[in-house]
Design brief:
The chain is of the alpha/beta class and 241 residues long. The protein contains eight helices and ten strands. The strands form three sheets. The chain has a five-stranded mixed sheet with strand order 6-10-9-8-7. The chain has a three-stranded antiparallel sheet with strand order 1-2-3, with no helix packed on it. Strands 4-5 form a two-stranded antiparallel ribbon. Strand 1 and strand 2 form a beta hairpin. Bound molecules: zinc ion. Zinc ion (ZN) binds next to strand 6. It comes from Brassicogethes aeneus (Rape pollen beetle).
Length: 241
């Protein structure tokens, strides 16, 4: 199957996947929303203000239209960590060049290995990423690295979801040193383990001007696992660009 048929296009601010298409507007694309809804169940770290949607400003009955306010801490639910989060003066979310927010993505699915290990401190190693490349070919320049620990199944149970899966220092350095990635996404609450101090992966990735995507919803079957299933379909029907 042509390598480009594996291309995934990632869109923000609603984090979407599309695959098997050259252009997002193509009718041949299938989209997957990787965001969790913001509601009373949205996961936040302890001590952070949760998502609240409390105040009605206008109602249909009185005003002819409805309008509300909401409030929340930044770092809960599906969200981006901009480089400025750990790198003063670096890009805010608005300053991340837009073309870096629409890119191909590589899914590294470690969920089976995490489940088999039973290790609460499971972390992704450079060897995991190098092994991915042995199977799939080199990571593409200008892509986003998605790491699936299989943790979305615990959403929104805070006790189980706020865990210790992580990108350790050596892996974060490996990712930055590739000089290929625009960002890194995880299906956990943080790129660092919940008890990490200091937050080394944050420091390395964000100082490298990558952005993090945390609390991604990866419960859907994603293109990395659909690749074989749909490969014939790709070859017959998709004009790969
Ligand atoms: Zn964050």
């Amino acid at each position: 199957m042509p390598r480009n048929a594996h291309k995934i296009i990632l869109l923000f601010t609603s984090i979407l996947f599309a695959w098997a298409c050259g252009r997002p507007e193509s009718k041949k694309c299938t989209y997957i929303d990787l965001s969790w809804p913001f509601d009373n169940d949205t996961v936040y770290w302890p001590g952070l203000p949760s998502f609240t949607f409390p105040e009605v400003l206008d109602t249909y009955a009185q005003d002819g239209f409805s309008m509300f306010t909401y409030s929340a801490a930044e770092h809960g639910g599906t969200h981006i960590d901009a480089p400025v989060h750990f790198n003063p003066g670096a890009w805010t979310v608005a300053e991340i060049p837009f073309e870096r927010l629409i890119s191909t993505a590589a899914l590294v699915d470690l969920s089976d290995e995490v489940a088999a290990s039973g290790d609460p401190n499971f972390y992704v190693t450079p060897e995991h990423l190098e092994n991915w490349e042995k199977v799939n070919g080199p990571f593409e320049n200008g892509s986003v690295l998605l790491i699936k620990f299989g943790w979305s199944k615990y959403w929104p149970n805070k006790t189980n979801y706020l865990g210790l899966k992580s990108i350790p220092k050596e892996t974060a350095e490996w990712i930055v040193n590739q000089n290929k990635f625009y960002g890194v996404g995880v299906d956990t609450a943080s790129v660092d383990a919940g008890n990490a101090n200091p937050l080394v992966a944050h420091q390395i990735l964000l100082k490298g001007y990558l952005y993090n995507m945390e609390m991604i919803n990866m419960n859907e079957e994603l293109p990395g696992t659909l690749r074989k299933k749909y490969s014939n379909h790709y070859q017959k029907n998709i004009n790969v660009q």
